[in-house]
Amino acid sequence: MDQKEQIVFDVLYGRRSIRHYQDNRAVEHEKIVTLLQAAMAAPSACNIQPWEFIVVTDEETVSQIKGSIERWGDYNAPLIIVVCSYPALIPWGSDGVIDCSAAIENILIAATAMGLGSVWIGGFHPPSIRRILNIPEDVVPQGLVYLGYPAEQPAPRTQYLEELVH
Length: 166
What we know:
The chain has 166 residues and is α+β, with helices and mostly antiparallel strands.
């Protein structure tokens, strides 16, 4: 494996769900912009890019979002990116979840490469997120990404299982 390949695989295997973040350390604006650039570089069916991103850094709003999640959402991340779809752009009736998932994966990988921790929150109540953030009815919250500087460092790993390959 050459050096460039090694760097890519180190980041891929190093990407772990981080649930403990350094207190009182905000993510810099430049890094947030870079994360969003990575998100918008994701593949999208017919390049429609039916996504919208809501960046939440306000402590009170972050707290409200965390409070709306019943389980597995009360981590101390200072930043939440809410990835939403705009299904009206998709002529075949999809809700855009696949495109948004690709964008989320790019955020997760970019965060790891930048020394940030992240965790993808899929178990949330979309109507609560819609209410907290005043999201219009035609925009669908698809996923939340908590981000911050990690206070834990799980070991890199792959979860490759040969018996799952057919």
